[in-house]
Amino acid sequence: MCGIVGYIGPKQAQEVLISGLSKLEYRGYDSAGVAIGDGACITVKKKAGKLANLSGELAAQPLAGTMGIGHTRWATHGLPNDTNSHPHATEDGQIVIVHNGIIENYLSLKEGLMGRGHTFKSETDSEVLAHLIEEAYQGDLEGAVRTALSQVRGAYGIVVTHVNHREIVAARTVSPLVMGVGEGEMFLASDVPALLAYTRKMVFLHDGDMVVLNDDGYRVTDLAGTALQRPVETIEWDAEAAEKGGFDTYMLKEVYEQPQALTNTLIGRLHDETGEVNLDINLDPASFKRISIIACGTAFYAGLVGEYLIEQLARIPVECDVASEYRYRDPLVSENTLAIVVSQSGETIDTLEALREAKKGGAKTLGVINAKGSSMTRELDDTLYIHAGPEIGVASTKAYTSMVSAFLLLALWLGRARGTISGEEGAELLHATRELPRLVEEALAEARIEQIKRVAEKYHQARDYLFLGRGVNSPTAYEGALKLKEISYIHAEAYAAGEMKHGPIALIDSNLPVVVVATESRLLEKTISNVQEVRARGGKVILILSDGDTENAQHADDVIYVPRAHEMVSPVVNAVAMQLLAYFTATALGKDVDKPRNLAKSVTVE
Questions:
Q1: Does residue 50 have an active-site annotation?
Q2: Which terminus of the chain has fewer Cβ atoms in its 10 Å neighbourhood, N or C?
Q3: Average pLDDT score over the chain
Q4: Is the pLDDT reported for residue 80 higher than 90?
Q5: What percent of the chain has pLDDT over 70?
Q6: Cβ of 446: how many Cβ atoms within 10 Å?
Q7: Does the predicted TM-score (pTM) go above 0.85?
Q8: How many whole angstroms separate alpha carbon 392 and alpha carbon 26?
Q9: Beta strands in 59-146 (DSSP E)
Q10: Catalytic site residue 485?
C-alpha cells in the first residue's frame, strides 16, 4: 500500500527518489521521506502530509548523494506524523530502512530489543527491523538483513542501506518490489510507474527473494543465500502512458482510455468464423462442477457480473465471495472447484490469502489480473490477463470494465466448451462483445458527457444516493454507488431493484436521488415497476436508459442515455455512465478524485 523507491548510480539520488515517489502517490499515503548517502554519511529527511511538503524542503536545502531510498507511508502502527514516517534509522544513523507491510510479531521483538538496550524513536512496527539488522551486523549488511528477517513474521518489502556500504539490500514477502535495470545504475520500487522515466527493463522479485544492488549491477538470492535467476522483462508501456496525457485527472484520462483498454482485452481472442473464444487457458472446462469468484471492492462487483454471465451462459453453479471473509469461513472446495481471483494489481493481500486457501482445498485456480509479474500470477494455475494498461487513479475505471469484459469472454469460452451455447447464440454474443469498444466510444460522446455533468451538478449537494439495478446490471448499481462514495464522500447505497420494497423504500423522500439502471433487458418492465414505487414516494429518479427509449423517460426526473447494447454486454456500457456521474459530482464538490481520502490503489496489508 505504501510506496518505495531506491536508487544507486551516477545521478543525484534526490531527483530520482522524489520523481519516483510522485509516481506512487496513487497508492495512498500520509507521509513521505528519503535517506540519501554520499559515501560519508546518510541523511534522513521525512515529513508528514503530502509529498509536496517534503519536496518543498528538499528544493530549499537539497541533499547531495548518488545513493538513496525513499518512502510514502500509509499509517498502520502509530500516528501519521514526522517521527513515525519512514525511513527509520538506528540510533547512530548508520543503518537506514524503509518497509512496506506489517511485522506481526513486532511487539515481542521490540520488548526483547529494548531489554537488550535498544532505544526506539517511533511507534511503528517497522523500526524493529532496523534494530534487528543493527544487532546482527558484523560488517556484512546482506547477512545481517538475512538474519533479521529470519526472526520476523508477517509481510514485508524492505530496503536497507548502511553508511559503510555502497549497496542497497532489499527483500520481499507479500509486499511487492520491482527492480529497474539501467545503464550503470539500478533502481527499486513498489510499482513500475515509479521507474519508467529511467528504464523499461524490470525484474519482478518473488516472495522470499533478496537482492543486492550496487554500481556493478545486482544479484538475487533466496533468504537462505542460494543464488536465483529472475528474468529481465521489458515493459511495453512507457512513462507517458502513466501520466495524465493532457487530462485534468488520471481518473478522467482512464475513463477515456476505456475503448482502447477494451480493445486490448478482446484482441486476438474472438473468432467470428467459428464463434469460438481463444483465451490460451490450459484448464479443462469440463472438469469443474462449481466456481468460486473471489475478490475485493470494485473487482468483487466485476466478479458479481461474472457470476451472472457464467451461470447464464455456461450453466455452472457460481458463488461470489468477498476475499477478506473467504478464508475465515472454512470454505468448501475440492479438485472439481475452479477458484477465480480478481485483482487489478495482483497484489491485494486479502485476495492473495484467499487464493492460497482455495489451493489448500485442492481447487484449480485462475486469475483475472491486470499487472504482469504480480504475486498472484506466480501462484495461479492459469491467468486471464485483462491488458488494461497502467491504472493510476485510485478509483478503478478501465480495469473494472476490462474485468467485466474478461468475464464475458470466460463465460463464452466455458459455454462453448461445455456445449451450453449454440453456434448461433455464440456468434450473436461474440458480435455483441466485439462491439464493446465502439459502444464505449459512443458512450463518451461530448453531448452525453455534458448531460451527465448537468445531472451531477443538479444533485451534487445531496447527502445520500440510492442506486438500483436488476439481473446482470444489479452489480452495476453496486459499482455506481461505490464510485460515488469513493470520490465524492456522499453516502450511497445500492440494491437489486426488487429488494427495495423489503426495507430500503423507507429511505425514499423528496431529497433522495435514486439512480436506476433501466437499459434494454428482459427485466425492464419489472425495473420500471420499481421506479414507480420510488416516484410514488417522492424520490428523485435518474434513469439510465437505452438510446431511443422515450416511453420510459416519462418516469424520470432526469435521464442519462447510453448506447443500445446486448443485455449480456450492457454492464460495461452502463458502468461508464456511473463513472462519469461520480466523477462530475466529486469535481463539483471540489474533491481530489485521484487521491480520495483514506484509500489506496493497492491494498497489501490486512
A1: no
A2: C
A3: 92
A4: no
A5: 97
A6: 7
A7: no
A8: 6
A9: 67-73, 88-89, 95-103
A10: no
